[in-house]
Design goal:
homodimer, Rossmann fold, about 35% helix, alpha/beta
């Protein structure tokens, strides 16, 4: 096991706009970025293909896909992102948790990233969560990230024995979608490579109506940046 | 999603002596126990077969195996429990972390248990870690368990919105191996069903020499309970 390497980071990459921007920020900060995606039983694999492309585009060191079944078949499920539940096409009422929520998903992804970080000798993990457009997911809030970081620093050999502390970076946490897009555009991110629609067509076109599409579209408008997404109705 | 059920618990079951005793304690406390094991690329599958038997023996409601590759092939590895590294057959020097350590294993297992708990409507998770004979694993300490519980209560809808708090039970944490065996024996646990050797023979006999075997054998001796383990040298 490599013990310490200041420059290595594990970057969680979903294939969507937010995590790609987080990767661009990590790269710009000088980290050697080891990208990690999950084949967790999501309804479509477009986002994993996008994540591989994004790693290449933004100069990640490597891209690894970890397989874990969080769908109903795997005993989990109850989410429109993994199971045969229609993806909602209207705004979520305030205070309601959307059906696209996957139980404990970010906790599980960060935990696996933590193990991976220890194996490769990284002390920095990047995750592209954002509180502003967070759709009501509890595991997209700063207090969750802070608590995870405290736990992580008690969980592994490298953090318990070493002098370096593990840091969970959530650089987008206080950004609006427009700010994320502006930041990424300034860093040279090509947003035409992303996939972030919850319910794309068979040909991979975005629906334009789900939470993810609506937030993205409004974000490009507000940022004054042309939206390169290919929509099904165009 | 079922929202609340006081009586449901998720019990992490490895197939070994400790987690079986934790299951017996959970069952004795009145919980309906949903057992969870992991096919994580460990060197042998004997422990998963044992976990299934233990669930039946101790009256667990059901037993689910989640597959996640934490071996070297999966990009993890660096442990004698998952990879082609010889299992040590002598005492670990004080303060050294054994090569049988799997990076962030308990964090990953507890995170998946957390997602599963949210899906089935449980607020109690049992894990059979013990600080006393913990072999130097950082994720077997009370401060880790406490930090994980704090994080978990910020991570899920059920804990954020509900009035019930998620509890991580580590009932063995302060027990010696002898105390665990005495407690389990009093609760009717049949320890002949367990498998906890790190390096069994092809026929499933325990080596008698690895950390796990030595702690178990000494525990039975100290407890004054006959050791039902089948050793390779007998």
């Amino acid at each position: 096991m490599i013990l310490q390497d200041d420059n290595k980071a594990v970057v969680l990459l979903s294939g969507g706009l937010d995590s790609a921007t987080a990767l661009a920020i990590a790269k710009n900060a000088g980290f050697a970025c080891h990208c990690l995606s999950f084949d967790y039983g999501q309804r479509h694999m477009l986002e994993l293909a996008a994540a591989a492309k994004i790693t290449g585009h933004l100069g990640g060191v490597d891209h690894r896909i970890v397989k874990i079944d969080l769908s109903k078949d795997g005993g989990f499920g109850s989410s429109a992102l993994t199971d045969d539940i229609p993806v909602p096409k209207q705004c979520q009422p305030d205070g309601e948790i959307p059906i696209t929520y996957v139980p404990a998903r970010n906790t599980i992804f960060l935990s696996i990233a933590l193990g991976y970080a220890e194996v490769i000798g990284a002390f920095d993990i990047f995750i592209g969560v954002t509180m502003v457009d967070y759709s009501g997911y509890p595991d997209c809030r700063q207090e969750f990230i802070t608590a995870f970081e405290s736990m992580a620093n008690l969980a592994t050999i490298a953090t318990v024995k070493g002098e370096q502390k593990l840091k969970i970076h959530a650089p987008l946490i206080a950004m609006s979608k427009a700010e994320i897009i502006t930041t990424g555009t300034d860093l040279g991110v090509d947003y035409s490579l992303m996939h972030s629609c919850y319910d794309p067509t068979d040909k991979g076109l975005a629906c334009g109506k789900c939470d993810s599409c609506r937030f993205r579209r409004a974000g490009f408008e507000e940022a004054g940046v042309p939206d390169p997404t290919k929509y099904s109705y165009q």
